[in-house]
Every structure is written in C-alpha cells, then in structure tokens.
Design brief:
Length: 402
C-alpha cells in the first residue's frame, strides 16, 4: 500500500504546484482528498480531451486522489471541510495565506480543531517580506529567480522561460520533503505545525546554488555564474545526421575519448589535458566537441562512445521518448484503462522501496466523483448530504453515484 499508508491529506490546491505534490503523496500511499470548487480545477480544461473536464494535464497530475466538490464561500461548505480536517494528518493549500484567513481556514483556526495537523502552504513568497501578498506564477518566478536571465546568456541573448512548469514541480517536490519532515517531527513530539514553502525563496536557492560563483564571497570575486552551464556549446550536439547528448567530464572519460577518436594532440594541449585546464577554457573545449560531432553519424557516435564508457544518451522528442529502450524495459510508460477516458498512458512512480512498494491505485477522478463517499466517511447522514446538494454546497457524482 505504499510507505504513507494511513496518512490522510486534505488537498486544497489547484493547477500544478500543489497537485503535483499531492499526487506524489498519493502515489506513496496517502489517502488524498482533493477539494475542488463546483467548477473543478482549471487544469481539467487544458489540452485535448475525450470528455470535458478530463484534460491530459489534469490526468497526469491528479491520480491517486479522491475528488470532492465544495463551495467554501458558503458556511456549510466551510463547515464540511472543517469536519474533514478533524481527522486529517495534512492540509495543503496553494492560495495566498490571506485568502485562507478570509475563508476562516487559517492556521490559528484549524490548529485548534486538530493540533496534530500539518498545515502546509505552497505559495509565492515568504510572509516576512514586501512581496508577501503578491500573486505568483511559474513564469514570474522563473524570471525573479534569475532563470530567464540564464537562458539568455546560454542562448541568443533573449531572456526566455524554460518550456516546462519547472518552478511548480520543483517547489512541489520541496513541499513533499517539508511535509514528510513535519510528519517525522509529529511522530516525535505529538504536535503538528504550520510549514510554508515559498516559490521565490525555493527557486532562488535552486538556481543560485549553481550560479553564486564569486558572489559567494564578500567582497565578490566575480559577477557569478557557472561557466560550464553557460557555455554556448553546452547543448545536444549536431551529428552528421541528427543530434546526440554527450558529456566528457572527468580525466578518465577524456582519456577514453582521446583514445577512441585518435586525438592524441589533445594530451599536449593545456586547454584539454587537465580538468582545471578544461574548466578554464570550457567554451573552447565544448566548441571543439561540437565540431568533432559533425564528423560521424549519431549511430556511429553512439557505438563509439558506449564502447569507450563515455556518458551519452539519445536526444528524444516528445514521441520518441515513449519508445526509449530503457524506459520500455522498466515499464515507465504503461497504457491503462481509465473508467471514463478509455486507454490512457500513465507514468510509473520513479522511486522504489524494498518493503513498501508504491503503486498508484487510482487514476485521476471525475469532478466530485467521491463527494458522497467522503462526506459519509466524515459522519454526514444521507439527509445532510442531500441538503448540501440542494443548497449548492456540493454536487452529486457524475451519473448520480460514486
């Protein structure tokens, strides 16, 4: 059942950052109750769909969860979620903390109801700075953390965002770690606590950990930046007929590369002969590798580099990755039958455990699919549930049943 079996999570998050974190918790065995508005998470509407409300972004970020729809702006909806919180281990939200206070669901309220609760917020900024109340999105934090600037240095000089919700997923992963650490503390102390995971601070540490450089020192020794990462030829190399990903990094790998390619002249060149020499002349080194890669086909380089034990991988596109031989052998992408969406492709949990293997037991839910079930578990009677539906506080599951 996974290492988090028995942990109940109230998931009050939307879009990507929070749902990515709670999917991980659910994959690890936690019982995740996704609390949605009556309209549902907006990601239900993104991308091509077979049925409205079940888009691919939602399907790939919300498995291992049960869905309940509640209107939290109505007192009965707030009271319902408070009843769920009483027996929960974790509550995670990704609106600004001020919004939780307006909903009367701030930590001061819920901690009195459930002192063992881990109250986790994933939002834009630490609450002790001038940005505390500002809204935040992945794109903004990519810019604010310096990532867009780095893309300009390593590219054509134009700042741009990484074409991936990188911030949401990195901060979501940090949130999982913070929540698990809080659960360990609770096991030792018996007490829950509030934990904030701000996006800007998390990503500033993530980016600047590589690129602080001489700015680490006071006064600074340089203007920062990790030269190897910023080299213009640090990229997939073009071959005679395609592209290949290669890194020749340590002295042993360079010795093997020189032997395999017959480039003995490099041994006598101080720019190539030592790790320090290569690091100090990284643009020259990578430019020469880029030139050399044009001399053979991708298949020829793959065979030569593998034989020489030099790190290499194919450069996949979004379709070819589905047939990568390693990912195929490990059954990373599998085709499964969704109850309403038919056959869909699912990705396995990447981590493995020797004693408590984690395997998703639920595919992404329909909106409000489990409302009746969850409310019954919280002690609501059939008449109370019917009244909530009639008052527009919740909605029935699709088809009128769980």
């Amino acid at each position: 059942m996974g290492p988090l079996e028995g942990i109940k999570v109230i998931d009050m998050t939307t879009v990507l950052m929070g749902p990515y974190a709670t999917q991980m918790l659910g994959d690890y065995g936690a019982d995740v109750l996704k609390v949605e508005t009556l309209e549902g998470d907006v990601t239900r509407q993104i991308g091509p769909t077979r049925h409205p409300g079940m888009g691919p972004l939602f399907l790939n970020t919300n498995r291992s969860k049960r869905s309940i729809a509640l209107d939290l702006k109505k007192s009965a909806g707030r009271d319902a979620v408070l009843r769920l919180i009483r027996s929960a281990d974790v509550l995670i939200y990704n609106v600004r903390p001020q919004a939780m206070v307006r909903l009367q669901l701030g930590y001061d309220v819920v901690s009195k109801l459930n002192p063992r609760l881990i109250y986790a917020g994933v939002f834009g900024f630490g609450q002790d700075g001038p940005y505390a109340a500002k809204p935040a999105y992945d794109d903004l934090i990519q810019g604010g953390s310096g990532l867009a600037h780095l893309m300009a240095i390593g590219g054509d000089g134009t700042p741009r965002y990484v074409p991936n919700a990188l911030v949401d997923r990195i901060v979501g992963t940090h949130a999982v770690g913070a929540i698990l650490a809080s659960l360990v503390h609770r096991e030792r102390s018996g007490s829950g606590q509030r934990v904030d995971i701000p996006m800007l601070e998390t990503m500033s540490s993530f980016v600047m950990g590589d690129h602080m450089g001489g700015l680490t020192y006071e006064p600074p020794l340089d203007k920062g930046g990790y030269a190897r990462h910023l080299s213009p030829d640090r990229r997939p190399y073009k071959t005679a007929d395609g592209y290949i990903c290669v890194i020749v990094y340590n002295d042993k790998q360079w010795d093997n590369f020189i032997k395999a390619t017959g480039r003995d002249d490099m041994r006598a060149d101080p720019k190539f002969a030592t790790f320090a020499g290569r690091a100090g002349n990284i643009d020259v080194v990578y430019a020469e590798l880029a030139r050399m890669m044009l001399e053979r086909t991708t298949a020829e380089w793959t065979d030569l580099l593998n034989e020489a034990d030099i790190p290499t991988l194919p450069m996949h596109d979004l379709e070819s990755i589905l047939t990568d031989p390693h990912l195929t052998a490990t059954n990373f992408f599998s085709v499964v039958d969704h109850p309403t969406e038919g056959k869909i492709r699912s990705m396995r949990v990447s981590a493995t455990w020797s004693d408590t293997p984690a395997k998703p037991e639920r595919l992404a839910p329909l909106l409000s699919e489990h409302s009746d079930e969850i409310l019954r578990e919280a002690g609501f009677s059939a008449d109370e549930i019917a009244a909530l539906v009639k008052e527009g506080v919740t909605r029935t599951a699709p088809g009128g049943q769980d």
